[in-house]
Design goal:
Layout: E1 2-8, H1 18-25, E2 33-38, E3 42-48, E4 61-62, E5 68-76, H2 79-88, H3 98-109, E6 119-127, E7 132-137, E8 146-150, E9 153-157, H4 160-164, H5 175-184, E10 198-199, E11 204-209, E12 212-217, H6 230-248, E13 255-258, H7 263-275, E14 281-286, H8 295-304, E15 308-313, H9 320-330, H10 340-351, E16 356-358, H11 363-367, H12 371-382, H13 387-396, H14 409-420, H15 424-432, H16 437-443, H17 453-457, H18 468-478, H19 480-494, E17 499-501, H20 507-514, H21 529-535, H22 541-545, H23 555-560, H24 564-570, H25 573-579, H26 584-595, H27 602-618
Helix pairs in contact: 2-3, 6-7, 6-21, 9-27, 10-19, 12-14, 12-15, 12-18, 13-14, 14-15, 18-19
Length: 639
């Protein structure tokens, strides 16, 4: 695992020290080796976390004729078979690492090489004679890659901070990105929160030549359900999981498994124990004494599979504000997902023992594991009820007692009824989001204008409304998965120099899931139906029968308790005025409603908190030089 950065400079020599600062800023992603390639018109650098071929493979790698250069982040799991094919075609190798294979594959097949890669990656190639720079990203967006075109030159990096190191790049807020962030809790591809900086889309490559950018997709998961029986589907999935997990276990450094005690990570652990000949390490987060604590389940699995088990108890008594401040540096594009906090502590604990961890990310988005997919169905039925009745029911939920649960009944009912009043696509985004369009109008000094419908409108091949499960799995695989789940995992793990691998996101498994009819994903109230049936006789009954929790914090409670001083400082009047994004009266109203227990607004506040910390840490500016004292006070729409 690595980090990459670079930029072209066709109008003169590179600004001194920029590449070195970019490399230094990414050192947490690759503490074992750092290197740079600098030529008259391009500068490229890489930092390396050594996983495969510990003696060879230092980056950047340059072909012997000086024509091609590569900087690479990720893993190519089929690099051995690709190496053999390339050797038969006349290529010679000086190392055993997958980066050199990725370089030779590009020399041989140009951008067609991406279709041959099986793995997770973000890569940049420089072609000297053509003065051509090519960027590429893996199919599911497991590894991040950002870019911007500024003053005729292309800048790129694994993280935003690598691009922001260049003094010419403006640090201006993107209002399009901000609107999506407030709606969704994340910023969907291709947008970011920095104006004019974008993400390379998953499953695509981008070429820069003669001051112009062209881009093309090299893969799309086509949802084409076909008739298949449950037994045959389980057999196919069984083979695919064995193959994927076997490949993901390949490592020249110590390796472990994140084990929550849930269905997905337990499945990974089961298959890993079958194919591995070494004792496995497992890592878990507990919340001792809390209703959502999962220690009963992951300890059961650790005992059954005889793992070397490690766990960390996450409580409000820890120095959480310090961790959150640190996260604002490593999450150099903020995420409003409060689940980042336990992933931070899980990664820190894991990195003290191993360098690689396998996780269960992706199973929910390919097999249908979230309650939101059930909510989509129920809301479709609820929309047959007169709007006046739905609104009356929603207003009645205001009389429910406010719960300190992570997601209590009061929160679920309000969220569902509000979503049922929205169009289907907008409602699906709303289930996991925070601020509605009406709330943003009251909150923002410059309200966002781009509707959420653009996100679904731009997805070719999206399944129709008569197949809601597959439609929203398709949507989540394009947005929620790469831009929330995988983003969170990458930033929190790489902050601690830990590589996390998601075997469920082998593209062969994802393609297989796309061929399954909806009833093999969700049947009645049973989610991930085919996966459950496959492992029903492999895993303990306690694992199969338990409810899904998800790794998250009790945000509502902690933001009223141990995190309240941090919230009051970061979202205080002076800070909000300085940021210049939101009406101070609206922020004050949100905080008052939450602290006085009139509403549970913990997830709203978490998103605002991380956003303001990020702006402060990276000197991100608003273009609104507004004296907000003169703005008419607004009652927040959530009131």
């Amino acid at each position: 695992m690595c980090g990459i950065a670079g930029f072209t400079h066709f109008r003169g020599p590179a600004a001194p020290g920029v590449l070195n600062r970019a490399i230094e800023g990414l050192k947490h992603r690759g503490p074992n080796q750092q290197g740079a390639f600098e030529a008259a018109t391009v500068s490229m650098g890489a930092v390396r976390l050594k996983i495969i071929d510990l003696e060879g493979g230092d980056q950047p790698i340059v072909t012997s004729d000086g024509e091609h250069v590569i900087v690479f982040n990720g893993e190519i799991y089929n690099h051995v078979e690709l190496r053999r094919e390339l050797e038969r075609l006349g290529h010679r190798f000086t190392s055993h690492c997958d980066t050199e294979v990725a370089l030779r594959a590009f020399v041989q097949w140009n951008t067609a090489c991406f279709q041959r890669f099986r793995g997770m990656f973000a890569v940049a190639y420089w072609c000297a004679s053509q003065q051509r720079l090519v960027l590429g990203r893996d199919r599911l967006g497991i590894k991040p890659l950002y870019y911007t075109l500024h003053d005729g030159n292309l800048h790129f990096g694994s993280e935003l901070k690598a691009i922001l190191e260049h003094p010419a790049i403006p640090r201006q807020i993107s209002y399009t990105g901000l609107g999506h962030y407030l709606s969704l809790n994340y910023v969907p591809t291709p947008y970011t929160l920095v104006d004019a900086v974008e993400k390379v889309r998953p499953a695509s490559w981008l070429e820069y030549r003669n001051g112009r950018i062209t881009s093309e997709s090299y893969w799309q998961n086509k949802f084409q359900p076909r008739p298949i029986g449950l037994e045959d589907a389980c057999g196919c999935l069984d083979t695919l999981l064995k193959n994927s997990i076997s490949e993901h276990l390949i490592s020249d450094v110590p390796l472990g498994i994140w084990a929550s005690g849930g269905l997905d990570s337990s499945t990974i652990l089961h298959y890993a124990s079958e194919v591995s000949n070494r004792k496995l390490n497992t890592f878990s987060i507990s919340f001792n004494g809390r209703r959502f604590d999962e220690s009963e389940y992951f300890r059961l699995l650790a005992e059954q599979y005889n793992t070397t088990h490690h766990e960390f108890d996450l409580t409000g008594d820890l120095d959480l504000p310090s961790a959150i401040h640190e996260m604002s540096y490593y999450s150099d594009e903020p995420s409003a997902d409060a689940g980042a906090l336990p992933v931070w502590f899980l990664s820190r604990m894991t990195a003290r023992q191993v360098t690689v961890a396998l996780s269960g990310e992706g199973a929910d988005e390919i097999f249908g594991g979230y309650q939101t997919y059930l909510a989509d169905r129920y809301a479709n039925i609820a929309r047959r009820v007169p709007t006046a009745i739905l609104r009356a029911a929603m207003n009645a939920t205001g009389r429910l007692p406010v719960s300190d649960e992570k997601i209590g009944l009061d929160y679920k009912l309000k969220r569902f009824l509000s979503g049922a009043l929205l169009p289907a696509d907008e409602a699906h985004f709303y289930w996991n989001g925070t601020f509605s369009g009406r709330e943003q109008q009251a909150l923002c000094l410059k309200p966002p204008r781009q509707p959420l419908s653009v996100l679904t409108d731009r997805l070719p091949g999206i399944p129709p409304y008569n197949d809601l499960v597959n439609r929203y799995l398709f949507v989540d695989q394009h947005y929620y998965l790469p831009d929330d789940i995988l983003y969170k995992c990458d930033r929190m793990s790489m902050a601690h120099s830990l590589e996390v691998r998601p075997p469920f996101l082998d593209h062969r498994i994802v393609e297989f899931a796309g061929t399954l009819p909806s009833e093999l994903k969700i049947r009645g109230r049973s989610t991930k139906y085919v996966l459950r049936k496959l492992v029903s006789k492999k895993l303990p009954a306690a694992i199969m029968n338990r409810r899904k929790e998800g790794l998250d914090i009790p945000a509502h409670e902690w933001l009223r308790g141990p995190l309240r001083p941090l919230v009051q400082e970061v979202l205080g009047l002076a800070s909000v005025k300085k940021a210049g994004l939101f009406a101070p009266s609206a922020i004050a109203k949100i905080l008052d409603m939450h602290f006085s227990r009139k509403q549970n607004l913990g997830y709203h506040i978490w998103g605002l908190l991380t956003l303001h910390l990020w702006m402060r840490r990276w000197n991100i500016e608003s273009d609104l030089a507004v004296n907000t004292d003169n703005r008419t006070a607004l009652a927040w729409a959530g009131d």
